[in-house]
Amino acid sequence: MDPRRYVMELNDGNIIPVLGFGTAAPIEVSKHSVLRIESIDAGFRHFDSAIRSKIAEGIVERKDIFYTSKLWCTSHRPELVQQSLEESLRKVQLDYVDLYIIHFPMALKPSKERIPKDENGKVMYDTVDLCATWEAMEKCKDAGLAKSIGVSNFNHKQLEMILNKPGLKYKPVCTR
After folding, report:
1. CA–CA separation, 165 vs 167, rounded Å?
2. pTM value?
3. Is residue 53 part of a domain?
4. Which residue range or ranges hold the NADP-dependent oxidoreductase domain (predicted)?
5. Which residues, 6+ apart, have CB-to-CB distance to 6 below 8 Å?
6. How many domains does the chain have?
7. Does 170 map to a domain?
């Protein structure tokens, strides 16, 4: 089976491979690298992890890779959205992502910690309007940093809030 054959059109006209390779599993970094390299060799073209070495080697061209990045909960404030994406792009040495997703619909206090906690060990949530976060996502698309934008882990009401936002410029292309 060649994974490159299985694609689907998103509601904004871009094409996404339906088979992808993610690296959220808690395995060591070196294993991620080996798995990414082997998955590219096997024909996978949809990733949410770094693939720069295969592009540099000429094994695959950037235009043939579908790269996804996620906005983490500590970066929901509108002024942090593009900054977070730009930081991700620097890490993977790419100019744009094919898909930028709001990973979870809950905001945490801005922090370098993945899950910020107070002195009592309680998670520190933030109050951020998801519609304001979405508007910042739209700006990333307008700036050419993301070809498509979407959401992940949203329930029906949270998705409707985005879809019914006054002045909505772009609908989410996916709701994983």
Report:
1. 6
2. 0.78
3. yes
4. 40-169
5. 17, 18, 19
6. 1
7. no
